[in-house]
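Run log, item B.
One chain of 206 residues. Sequence copied directly from the ordering sheet:
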Amino acid sequence: MNFPSRLIENAVNEFSRLPGVGKKTALRLVLHLLRQPQEQSHQFGEAITRMRNEIRFCRQCHNVADAELCNICSSHKRDQSLICVVENLRDVMAVENTNHYNGVYHVLGGIISPMDGIGPDDLEIDSLVERMKTQEVQEVIMALSPTMEGDTTIFYISRKLIPFNTKVTAISRGISVGGELEYTDELTLARALVNRMPYESFLVNR
């Protein structure tokens, strides 16, 4: 692809680094920005820069935050005794969009995947155990994608939580096996949350 300007070429190359954005789409985005008022382009660039420089992660659940605690963990309206364990930030958004959950979260930052070189020590599992020691937790909901890696992660965490005698449940499998949680429609995910089952029963039914 030939470019009339090195500046445009550099901008296209940066946009094309984004997931799902090819060179043609990147070029359309760059040309769109060129047609906008300069002030709007500056606002766009400043928003990206501020997000990258100022974004924080909640010290309790590891969700994105603007302060030491995220809006969910700091809310007095949320049930602090109910923890929903998810893989990533997008899964937090997926569960929140169901409007069927009023507890808090714990973001692992991934799932156990030996093939990808990801082990338990690479995830926020130890911090979950620490939360169990300092908080009165009544139930831990395992809301991980129904894949082999997700099931392995659930099994590992459930073993770590045995000493706390806390109820451990897993979302029901209205979600197709092998599917990704973030792509599940809101109604199916909401039903899976409502119909969650004890993790021991989940193991028996596998």
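Observations after the first pass:
- The radius of gyration is 21 Å.
- The CA atoms of residues 86 and 143 lie 5 Å apart.
Flagged for discussion on Thursday.
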